[in-house]
Write a structure and sequence with these properties.
10 helices, 260 residues, DNA polymerase, domain 1, Rossmann fold
């Protein structure tokens, strides 16, 4: 049976779990600006090339990574507090830059199935973002990577979200924008929809690892396999599954260039 077909193709996922930064709001530039300002205060530099040092990590993890990467004497608690307070200040003053159509899509999907927010961000930043976007109260569960043992790319935050929702991981759809998030979703045995960030496009490996790739979240009218198949293109992982299925049926299937 081909992916996206069969008796369950029209069924809605038991739950949808959203990442926050880059998926619902375009806040990555705020994070990077605050980190760059902090680095300058310590006589160091910080730019886009340094982003992988902190990508997907929990607050305690990225604070430790920043301390080592910048080679500064400041303690990890001090680094964490300075960055979190700086991001919250910008969000409260300027609001959260929207990702076109994403907030409305999250509200619509939350009216169709159980939903959770599972973010690497500190809880103070999550609270400020939800307040700024009017999404406070939209999700059935809100989980920070600070609530679990390990940040992304480990699956902990997604598994905790599924536990709080009472949903089997295999029946959950994860919406992510980053490689770390895609890897975490796959490690959790969930279906992963990659919606690339407008400010920090993910590397090719994210496309290769995701199940589905969609340009904009608001193009998904309902969280169901059939709906995904109608609007999204298969990611490299799903494309490989499709090739294996078709090859098993005796069909000759050329390798897709974008899945290599």
């Amino acid at each position: 049976m081909s992916p996206g077909t069969g008796p369950d193709a029209d069924a809605v996922f038991d739950a949808v779990i959203f990442d926050m930064d880059g998926v619902l709001v375009d806040t990555e530039p705020i994070w990077e600006s605050v980190r760059a300002a902090y680095a300058r205060r310590h006589g160091r530099g910080w730019g886009p090339e340094d982003h992988p040092v902190v990508a997907g990590k929990s607050s305690r993890e990225w604070a430790a990574s920043m301390r080592v990467h910048l080679g500064i004497a400041a303690g990890e608690d001090e680094i964490e507090r300075a960055i979190v307070d700086g991001v919250v200040e910008v969000l409260r003053r300027d609001g959260a830059p929207p990702v076109a159509g994403a907030a409305d899509a999250a509200r619509r999907i939350s009216g169709l199935t159980r939903t959770a927010l599972a973010s690497s961000a500190h809880r103070d930043i999550i609270a400020a973002t939800l307040a700024a976007t009017g999404l406070d109260g939209t999700f059935d569960a809100v989980v920070s990577s600070d609530d679990v043992a390990r940040g992304k790319p480990h699956p902990d935050v997604f598994l905790e979200a599924a536990r709080r929702l009472g949903a089997p991981p295999a029946r959950c759809l994860v919406v992510e924008d980053s490689l770390a998030g895609v890897l975490a979703g796959r490690a959790a045995d969930m279906t992963v929809l990659l919606v690339p960030s407008p400010s920090f496009p993910p590397p090719p490996r994210a496309v290769e690892t995701a199940d589905w790739v969609l340009e904009r979240l608001d193009r998904l009218d309902r969280p169901a396999p059939a709906a995904l198949a109608a609007v999204a293109r298969p990611g490299g992982h799903r494309a490989a599954d499709e090739r294996a299925h078709e090859a098993g049926s005796g069909a000759v299937v050329p390798e897709r260039e974008d899945a290599r």
